[in-house]
Specification:
The protein has three helices and seven strands, in the order H-E-E-E-E-E-E-E-H-H. It is an alpha+beta fold. The chain has one domain: Peptide Deformylase. The protein has a five-stranded antiparallel β-sheet, sandwiched between helices. A hairpin with a 6-residue loop joins strand 2 and strand 3.
């Protein structure tokens, strides 16, 4: 199990570095990321959330066809239609807000062996991909909110963490 970094940890604001080595260590990291994400009841986890400034994230929407590891991903296409949906984040536990994102995305990435693949996603999978992709660029879901909503959420989170909530 890995520790999950929370709001305020500097690594969450860094742009992840490209993964160059596709080896046994990477496989172990991916396994630990899936295990950590599952234990935290999450559906996505990016390397910066576990303190590693690397361009990698895992997704498991609990649909057997939607369990992926994305290494060095690039969102290469988004549809124009955008939709609001409530999001939360393992790095800001207990906080949720409606976030506007593209309804469909196409992502190009590498798998655990370094092979390139493409996924066209919609619905929940598209949302999780965009959320985790943001993490690789130092962006949190609260950055996609208007200032008033973001300030309220951060204030509520700070109160929650001060009271041990």
């Amino acid at each position: 199990m890995l520790n999950i970094c929370t709001l305020g940890d500097f690594v969450l604001r860094e742009k992840g570095k490209k993964v160059e080595q596709f080896d046994h260590e990477l496989r172990e990291l991916v396994d630990l990321m899936f295990e950590t994400m599952g234990s935290a009841d999450g559906i996505g986890l990016a390397a910066p959330q576990i303190g590693l400034s690397k361009r990698i994230f895992v997704v498991d929407t609990r649909n057997p066809k939607e369990r992926f590891v994305f290494i060095n991903p690039q969102i290469i296409e988004t549809c124009e239609k955008q939709v609001y949906y409530e999001e939360g984040c393992l790095s800001i536990p207990g906080m949720y807000a409606d976030v506007l994102r593209a309804e469909e995305v196409t992502v190009l990435a590498q798998d655990i062996d370094g092979k390139t693949f493409t996924v066209k996603a919609d619905g929940l999978l598209a949302r999780v991909i965009q959320h985790e992709y943001d993490h690789l660029n130092g962006i949190l879901f609260i950055d996609r909110l208007d200032k008033e909503s973001r300030d309220k959420l951060v204030s509520a989170y700070e109160k929650l963490t001060k009271t041990g909530g």
